[in-house]
Amino acid sequence: MDFTILYEFIFGFILGLSIAAPPGPVNAIIANEAIKSPLHGTAVGAGAMSADLLFFLIVYNIKSYVPVYISNYIYILSSIILFYLAYGVLKSKSSSRGIKGNYFVGLTMGITNPYQIIWWFTVGLFMVKSYSIALAYGFFSGIFIWIIIFPFFVKKYLEKYSIYVKYFSFFTLIIFGIIILYSGIRSLI
Fold first, then answer.
1. Alpha-carbon distance 46 to 40, whole Å?
2. What is the pTM (predicted TM-score) of this model?
3. How is the chain split into domains, by residue range?
4. Cβ burial 78-90 (10 Å sphere, 16+ → b, else e)
5. Is 172 exposed, middle or buried (CB count within 10 Å of its CB: 0-12, 13-18, 19+)?
6. How far is CA 95 from CA 42, 66, 151, in A?
7. Secondary structure in 3-state letters for 99-140
8. Cα torsion for 106, 110, 116, 117, to the nearest 10°?
9. 1: which DSSP letter?
10. pLDDT tens-place string over residues 98-129
């Protein structure tokens, strides 16, 4: 039995969770809006996830136009970005819009977020060039699970467990940064 697809799905799922879970502007708005209702918080996350899907489609369609030698340098840059994001996770510190308005807030934040754009054209490019579509399914499943579950538990558990979310995100980003750095350096040698 070939476990490659399962491995890639799980790899993508964990990566998706590690990107969705860190404290940051989107999660701060999700938490704030979830106090009104979990659906309001999920709407913000769904908007940001829609931006991710848009970037995924762009990167997926341009992946074959990026030469291999440039990809290797992009992978090294990707690992540096992941290390920087991991550092930011450790240093981070939580309206009157309706559900539709919250969706557009999340979408606007996602489309204009320079970290999200850079992530997709670096780490995302590595993801779509190096793995099958199973990784993408896992990635978006991880984000989807986060934006559904996080708002439901935000009132009761956010302060109590936010440190664990922070450490999980930090260590996951570091591990993926090392994997991508290794791939880039190995290809250059």
1. 10
2. 0.74
3. 4-188
4. bbebbbebbebbe
5. buried
6. 15, 43, 15
7. HHHHHHHHHHHHHHCHHHHHHHHHHHHHHHHHCCHHHHHHHH
8. 180
9. -
10. 889 889 988 988 887 767 888 888 888 888 88
Place of tokens 């999200």: 116
Please tell me the distance from the alpha carbon of residue 104 to that of residue 53, in angstroms, as a whole number: 15
For residues 92 and 136, what is the distance between their CA atoms, to the nearest angstrom?
Answer: 27
The letter for the amino acid at 164 is Y
C-alpha 81/C-alpha 92 separation (Å) is: 16
Which residues in the chain show pLDDT less than 70? Answer: 1, 89, 92-95, 114, 155, 158-162, 165-166, 169
Record the tokens describing residue 81, joined without a space.
């970005």
